[in-house]
Structure formats: C-alpha cells, structure tokens
Amino acid sequence: MNETWVQLAALAVFAYLLGSIPNGLIIGKLFYHKDIRQFGSGNIGTTNTFRVLGKKAGIMVFTLDVLKGAIPTAIAGALHTPINPLFIGIFAALGHAFSIYLHFTGGKIVATSAGILLGYHPILFFVGAAIFLITLYLTSMVSVGSLTVLTVMTITALGLQDWTLGVIGIFITGLSFYLHRSNIKRILNHNENMVKFGLGYQRRLRKQ
C-alpha cells in the first residue's frame, strides 16, 4: 500500500471516528446531567436536543454536528487527495448514524451531511439552508424540512452534472429516509411533532 492510500485510509478513519462523537449525549450529560436518549424521541441529534435541553444546547449540538462533516471533507479537499473529498466526508455521516461509541447506533445524519456539503460546496450549503428554513416555516416539521432539502440538493447536484455529489446525495438521502422511517409514519398519520413556529403549527392550533 503506497503512501497516498495510507493517507486516504487515515482520513476515512478520522472522519468516521469524528462523525461517531455523540455531541448531543455528551452535552446533555456534561452540562445538563441528562441522558438525552431517555427523553423526547430518544435521538441524540439537534432536534431532540432543542426539544429536551433548550435552544443553547441545540445550537451547540447543531454546530458541532455540522463541523463533524465539514472538517474531514475540507481537509481532504485541501490535501488534493486523488479521490473526491465527498468520499471522505461520507464516513463522517456513517459515523454519526452508526457510532462506534454507541454500539453502532446514532443520529439521522442531516446536520453532518449539511457539514459535508459546507466543506465541499459552501454556496450549495447556504442554498440548502434557505430551502430548509422555508420548508420548516411552511410545515413546522423539522423532519419534512430535512428530507426535503436532502432531496432537492441531490436533484440540484444531478442537474449541475456533479455526478459524484449526485450519487452520494442519493445514498445519503436514501439512508436518511430510512433513519426517519418513524417520522414518516407519523407524518402520514398526521401526528408528527411540530416546532412552535410557522404555518403548520398555526394550522394545528386552529384545529384544536
């Protein structure tokens, strides 16, 4: 194995181990003395952190989870590796979903996937952020916003003929739909959790 492939393997392992860090669990235990897995949806990600621990903790977890994807992707790009940096970044998403520190369980990869996009194509990241916020305002459901932006960004990548981003987008979107399967059931049953923001929440209040 030559030096280049050793470097790539090291980057992939680094990305996976970084992605595996359960920021929601750590912040919950360290600052709030709560195991976030025992509250709300039981998920360690941003949405459940906001719901259980509050805005400050949610922002911290979101930022750290985005960085988990952005850092290894940006490093791979800066080193001009012979493979697309996205192939390194995807290991961070896999780490987040299947954390070695949590017996290969984890989060739903949305924030970490956003970080991968930030490290690879910052403009698309901000476009995606705008799409997410608009969808969140219209539906008041984080899950709908998350799945919508992943789908739209994948279609956009294919439209731009960035085939690597498109193919990886298909993989990440498919995995995220699988990880959101309980949310999808609740959406179809009209009982998905809503944030107290936006038109969807206002409609629900009027029906009560």
UniProtKB/TrEMBL annotation:
<keyword id="KW-0444">Lipid biosynthesis</keyword>
<dbReference type="GO" id="GO:0005886">
    <property type="term" value="C:plasma membrane"/>
</dbReference>
<keyword id="KW-0472">Membrane</keyword>
<feature type="transmembrane region" description="Helical">
    <location>
        <begin position="59"/>
        <end position="80"/>
    </location>
</feature>
<dbReference type="GO" id="GO:0043772">
    <property type="term" value="F:acyl-phosphate glycerol-3-phosphate acyltransferase activity"/>
</dbReference>
<comment type="pathway">
    <text>Lipid metabolism; phospholipid metabolism.</text>
</comment>
<dbReference type="Pfam" id="PF02660">
    <property type="entry name" value="G3P_acyltransf"/>
</dbReference>
<dbReference type="InterPro" id="IPR003811">
    <property type="entry name" value="G3P_acylTferase_PlsY"/>
</dbReference>
<feature type="transmembrane region" description="Helical">
    <location>
        <begin position="158"/>
        <end position="179"/>
    </location>
</feature>
<keyword id="KW-1003">Cell membrane</keyword>
<keyword id="KW-0012">Acyltransferase</keyword>
<keyword id="KW-0594">Phospholipid biosynthesis</keyword>
<comment type="function">
    <text>Catalyzes the transfer of an acyl group from acyl-phosphate (acyl-PO(4)) to glycerol-3-phosphate (G3P) to form lysophosphatidic acid (LPA). This enzyme utilizes acyl-phosphate as fatty acyl donor, but not acyl-CoA or acyl-ACP.</text>
</comment>
<protein>
    <recommendedName>
        <fullName>Glycerol-3-phosphate acyltransferase</fullName>
        <ecNumber>2.3.1.275</ecNumber>
    </recommendedName>
</protein>
<feature type="transmembrane region" description="Helical">
    <location>
        <begin position="116"/>
        <end position="138"/>
    </location>
</feature>
<comment type="subunit">
    <text>Probably interacts with PlsX.</text>
</comment>
<keyword id="KW-0443">Lipid metabolism</keyword>
<feature type="transmembrane region" description="Helical">
    <location>
        <begin position="86"/>
        <end position="104"/>
    </location>
</feature>
<keyword id="KW-1133">Transmembrane helix</keyword>
<keyword id="KW-0808">Transferase</keyword>
<keyword id="KW-0812">Transmembrane</keyword>
<keyword id="KW-1208">Phospholipid metabolism</keyword>
<feature type="transmembrane region" description="Helical">
    <location>
        <begin position="6"/>
        <end position="27"/>
    </location>
</feature>
<dbReference type="GO" id="GO:0008654">
    <property type="term" value="P:phospholipid biosynthetic process"/>
</dbReference>
<comment type="similarity">
    <text>Belongs to the PlsY family.</text>
</comment>
